[in-house]
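User: what does the whole thing look like in 3D?
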Amino acid sequence: MVNYGGDEVSALVIDVGSSSVRAGYAGDDTPKAVIPTSYGYHRAPLDADSAMTDVAEGAANGNTGKIAKMYMGQFGPSVWREGMEVTNPLSDGLIHDFEPVSALMRHAVVDVMRCNISEHPILVTEPAWNTSANRERMAEIMFEEFQVPAFYIANTGVLNAFAAGKGSALVIDVGQTMASVTPIVDGFVLRKGLVYSPLPQLVHAHARHTLLSPSPLRGGRGIDLFPHQLIANKMPVEANAPPRFALREDRTKGTTDSWRAWYEAREVEEWIQSVAGVMEQGWNEQVAASRPPKQYEFPTGYNAYFASERYLVGEQLFWHSPQLIASNPSVPKTLPTLISESLRACDPELRQVLVGNVVLTGGGSLFAGFSDRLSSELARSFPHVKIHSPGNPVERRYGGWLGGSVLGSLGTFHQLWISKEEWMEHGKAIVGQRCK
Amino acid sequence: MANAADVRSVLDLPSTRKLSVQTARKPDGISRELFSLIGPSSTTLVAQLAKPRLKQKPNLGQGSKIKWEWRPFKNSARTDSLQLRHWTKASAEPDAEYPFAKYNVQPTTFTYSQDEYTRYLDDKEWTKEETDYLMNIVREYDTRWYVIQDRYEYPGGTTRSMEDLKDRYCSVCRKLIRNRPWAGDDASKNVLMSSFNFDKDREVLRKKYVASLESRTPEQIAEEEALYMEIKRLEQNERRFKRERDDLLRTLAGIESGLPDVVEDETPLNLIISDSKRSKKKGGADPDSPATPLISAPRRPLPPKNTAYDLQHCITRTELTPLTSAATKAAHQPAYLRSFKLPFPKASVAPKVTQALAELGVSHTRLVMPTQGNVALLEGLIEAATALVETKKVVDKVEYDIQVLKNRLGMQGPATKMEETDGGMEVDEGGDADGDGEGEGEDGRAQSVVSTRSARSRKHARRSMSISSVDTSATVSTRAGTKRQRRT
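Assistant: Here's the predicted 3D structure for the full assembly of 924 residues, as structure tokens:
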């Protein structure tokens, strides 16, 4: 019962990220529900009178009158619907639109996990650069809307360190939209050492540019990024040959721009995940050319072998050409820059401790060769580098959730919950006091 | 398949079925056919085929079921009335203390009144408000200084380094402890005081060192490492030189050198060599037994009384050559049996010497009567054979070298002839010197071990060697020369 300091009170852990919302029981090793954060919706006709509004208003909080119906989860944005728009309530890792987020959390807990949300204490995660207004809003949703008995909001950096079994660590988190380096000491974020940049967005843009721009390798054409939902039929073709496919003409008219942007991003993402890599020892044209090319087939049937360009994509995380920096001064900083900036802000005594406890996490770090490259970059300036990078992709992608699961199932943690009673008594101020 | 009964009936043997039925039952793990063939007689087989007995399963639950309950609990570490639920054994007490509440330990904090502040804690760098803020934040973050420094944001205050904060906090605590009435004894007060000791200047200096250690360039690090290795090497050399110098001084000047660890030989050497039985008998009555303090002291002749005694008891005495080396423990000789000290040829030439002796029909490994004379003879023989073998070796080598040089000269012009020869010789000598050095060392050891006679014979051998080969003797002198050079 008291083994390992655990005492499970059936708390739920909800981790809202840019790509997915993870929810599950504290004490489990994987989240029970993982749903995409992007959701589809139909706008109610603006000029229609209120009697005409959709019957399915329950899923969405319709007080703006804009969104008539939300499509979330497994059959959410990935299903083609006529006139369906797709959007994401997060920007740069922060929630900017809370209404769909509460709907997404409710969907994950109620519809997927089939839990009664008001029965469980809930632990929610937040990025280290979250604003206090955001966390108070989250607490408000929990207590006022979901009527939870207790609530806590924890930092993803700290939780990632806990998931790795460390109290002090340098957490390098590469997510879908943001890359951050967070020094953690004794379970506290050192705010002065926290640095982050939208580096993964740059990588994504680079990959998209690689695919779309006309290339002599591909017969002077770019690649069509149509999703399978829009393709009626296709024929197998040789590598690099022009694809032979037919679009579903009935759907082209009803496809919205936001859905098109979403599916193109998704096609690029899938290409990155299957093909892209990082050179372990730094960029080297010859070595990159000598690596075996990888074949990838797009939904149109077009397929090609990608050789050194697949390493150029991952290279964007570690190195930017001087021309790029000169042409765009606000280009996101590379990971080595972020790390050295973060360490420079820390006490000199702490640096060696942190570098010996590097925790690599986030789905964006799953490039082949990423951790090797990181250790070779760090070894240049530090003698004793140790990187903890879980080999299991679930642990790497959902490190924040996993740490929350660890924290929420500890017996000693239960004194930290903000109870409903405390919320009623102290109001929003209690969140900042309790969750340091 | 035919079983034992069938065989018996075929051979008209009386049936034993009745008996077997009575005695044997088929054990488990053996097939029926096999059992009917071998019968109950083969016990070993049965033992092997018997089902293995597994260890008894542990009875973990003491046999009875345990009832668990989903029960609300109160956490005494909380200030509110939040009730969470968890699974507990139904047998557990409903209002027991929450087991994790005891980990909620509060650190001791210091508070002070306005009066105390003005009297003891006034500091021109700090206002009371900022000190209050500092004390609060230290309590809030439980003296985790890295976090405190990170979160320290006093509105309108100057930026404070971690050392500033630590220094202020520790000095406040120290002053409060010192000036307040103390309930316990002085020792515990001092212990508490010392736990708040903080030397700011030293900490700052240390941090500076740490920072400078990190800002080194790779070249600096490499240089530092090289210097470190160099100093280690120099230290080692220095030690070795000193040791060798001391050794030399000790050897040359003995106790007068003024160095420690000069070993005085306390018992006269001749006495040690003599028969153990006799030395026991004589005991302290011998006038010789008081130690001669210096090795350089002249050795007194033995009293004539002993000579008669020796003759009577067939005791032969061997006169040791006066040792030039220090009388250390290694040079000390206890009594020994002569047969233990049969001479052996050097290991490097042993096979050849053995072969040469075998040609003469002599085996040096086994001396039937190791009398003094025999041993001396054998030693002389071996020395001679060794010298012979070594001379042969040298001759072979020189001949070979001459051959090589001749070949080379034949290829090159006659102008370079002289140079080439010289170079060749030099190389030669080096090689020989090494070989001879070894020989000398070994011989030296032999000399200290065996009797004077052998030493004399050795001298003969040396002479004969020098006669037989000019080359070798030359190398010996070279060797000595190099040695001297190194010592100085």
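In plain terms: Confidence is low (pLDDT under 50) at residues 48-64 of chain A. The radius of gyration of chain A is 23 Å.
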